[in-house]
Design goal:
The protein has two domains: 84 residues, 2-Layer Sandwich (Alpha-Beta Plaits), CATH 3.30.70.260; 75 residues, ACT-like. Chain A, domain 2 (Alpha-Beta Plaits, 2-Layer Sandwich). Strand 6 and strand 7 form a beta hairpin. The strands form two sheets. Strands 5, 6, 7, 8 and 9 form a five-stranded antiparallel beta sheet that branches. A four-stranded antiparallel beta sheet has the order 2-3-1-4. By secondary structure, the chain is α+β, with helices and mostly antiparallel strands. The relative contact order is 0.17. One of its GO terms (cellular component) is cytosol. Its EC number is 2.2.1.6. Dimer of large and small chains. InterPro entries: Acetalactate_synth_ssu (IPR004789), Acetolactate_synth/TF_NikR_C (IPR027271), Acetolactate_synth_ssu_C (IPR019455), ACT-like_dom_sf (IPR045865), ACT_dom (IPR002912), AHAS_ACT (IPR039557), AHAS_small-like_ACT (IPR054480).
Length: 186
């Protein structure tokens, strides 16, 4: 995860980090890809990433135009600006791809993710988990005498923060949808 936050000119603290310190910074980008809703399209898009050794940090897919048979794939990936440009160009050349947008490069965008957290605990841990859930606006969607399931939507950073706070209180399981994103404005 720290590779996503490397700034140009930052020094590395690992003997195994073989990146050129003068090379471009690695950045996280959110791509919105409109594709034909047909079997195999998602596999081909993912294949493009795996064949070139690119990582996908988050992936969501859903049909967005039932009559036009189109789906939207939202991909969060990281790389240098040159790598991101290359990924965008290669996606755009795929036959079943109608449109590709780098939401990060195009300006401000809204990103949200849904997460479910199963937290087990009794006594003070249970009370603290409920208090933190209220602060983070997480909703209790299931409750037993030994556990809660919280539901929360927010930025990936908010989800990460809540998970870190829940770990010592009894976080047992976490399910995340991945990022959904739209550009701001018209």
């Amino acid at each position: 995860m720290s590779a996503l936050n490397i700034k140009k000119g930052a020094t590395s603290h690992s003997a195994y980090d073989l990146r050129d310190p003068h090379s471009e910074a690695v950045e996280s980008h959110t791509l919105a890809v409109i594709v034909e809703n047909e079997p195999g399209v998602l596999a081909r898009v993912i294949g493009l990433f795996s064949a070139r050794g690119y990582n996908i940090d988050s992936l969501t897919v859903a049909e967005v135009d039932h009559t036009g048979h189109r789906s939207r794939i939202t991909i969060v990936t990281s790389g240098t600006p040159a790598v991101i440009d290359q990924v965008e160009a290669q996606l755009g050349r795929m036959v079943s791809v109608y449109d590709v947008h780098d939401l990060t490069a195009e300006g401000p965008c809204v990103q949200r993710e849904l997460a479910l957290f199963k937290v087990a605990g009794k006594g003070e841990h249970r009370i603290e988990a409920l208090r933190l859930a209220e602060i983070f606006r997480a909703h209790v969607v299931d409750s037993t005498l030994e556990s809660f399931v919280f539901e929360m939507t927010g930025t990936p950073e908010k989800i990460d923060s809540f998970a870190e706070l829940m770990r010592p209180l009894g976080l047992r399981e976490l399910a995340r949808t991945g990022v959904a994103a739209l550009s701001r404005g018209v």
